[in-house]
Every structure is written in C-alpha cells, then in structure tokens.
Amino acid sequence: MPAVLTVVLAQLSPRLRQTKANIETIRRVVAEHPGADLVVFPELFLSGYTLSDIDELAVHLDGPELKKVADIAQESSTALIFGAPERVSGGVANSAFCIDGQGTIAAVYRKAQLYGGEESDAFVASDELLVVELCGLKMGIMICFDVEFPEVARSLAQAGAELLVTISANMEPFGNDHAVFVSARALENGLPHVYVNQVGPVEKLTFVGGSAIVSPDGEIYAQAGSSEEEILSVRLLPAKSNLREDYLSQLRSPMPSVKMVPSDARTETRV
Asked: Is 135 marked active-site?
C-alpha cells in the first residue's frame, strides 16, 4: 500500500456528444497536475451524460478513443478512471475505465445498479462487481446509483478493497442523498472514499457536483461545491479507521434469521 496517494478529482461538465473534445479535456487536466498518481473523472465523461441514441456514442475496448486516453496515461505516468458508454455483447454498458500509469487498461467496471427504467432501457447491467489494483492500491469501483446500495460497497470491502471510488452523474434534487451515501459507505466499511460527480446543466438535468474525498470515519477530507466546475488535488493517506470498530470483522455470518410475527399470530399479553 502506498504511503501517500495524490488524487485529482475532476468535477467537470463534459461537452455533450463531443468525445474528442472531452478526451482533450482529460489531456489538459492531466498536464496541469503532473504530480498526480490518479485522476478521476465523472460518469459517462467521454460522451457526456445522455440516454439519447447512446449507441452512436459507444466506444469499443480496442477503439481509437480509449487508445488516445491510454496514451495520455502512459505519457504522464498517471492512472485514470473515467466513464464512457461501451459497446458490449448484448448492447451498451455504462462503464468505468481504469487505466494504469503504464497506459494499460487494467480493468473495466460496467454499472450493476442502473437508475430507473430509462437507464435500464439504454444500458446492459453488469452481473459483476470490480476491485482493481491501481497505484499499488486495491480500489473498489462504483458508478453513481451503485453507491446508494450498502450491499455494493460492502461486497467490494469484503473482497479486499482498500479504497472506494465512485464516479457519478448525480442530479437535482438528489444532492443530499449522495452526500449521505458517500460518507455512509466509507464509515460502515472503514475505508476512504473518492467520489467524483458531474456538475452543471445538461439537457433537462442539472448535475449537483459535491465531489469529495471522505475519511474511513465518514469525515470530509476535501469537497467541491455544488454548482461550478472545480478540480481538487488531495494527498490521501490510504488507511482504515483506527477510531471505530472494524465492522467487517464484527459482522456475524451468517446473519441471524428474521422472525416474522403476523398480527393474527400474536398472543394477548395482559399487564
């Protein structure tokens, strides 16, 4: 585990349906932060967040778009995590690409918990969660709606994740929801959490920022605002909480069974 990790949170508003321009934004941000170990961009950053004609924007794993981003990572010796629609068997996935500092696509996580009917219609849900080693650290990857389910982060923690990373396109009126969930997922698993959200109006949506790095105790190390583009560079000491109980080791397995008592089975108790 590295002693200190320099993480850059790129809370930006990508240009909708302009993949080439968004790749150039990645290039610029990385160039402006030469000391970064890891730079993280929001959900569906290469395309911008849209569900319209998403097939037209989908990238291939061996396509030129990802090759360009991989070259940026290699030239700067910087690991990158960013979102893009990806063409997969059966349709298009909402994917998080994890590229190491040598320019290799270390892993791809495809969103498991799709948000509502429209995302489910546009994307193919994954049946697999992901822990990937980047910068010498095992990272559990989530995408937006995933973070709203304790089971997802808990599964990543139980699989050995040392850091949670969530890329997001969370919008009004759900800003406070993610503020709570991001801290809760860190606290309940005793792991630091990097959360990077899109910001600003796009089509009929307004994305609410709030990108943050959270301590294993659920406290905010650093946080961006809710309405403006902002780039945070944070020196993170990856560590588990030394303040609270290790919930993973304390968790009973299997859990006690649930007893259901219907109203017609109650016995009358007189005092």
From this structure: no
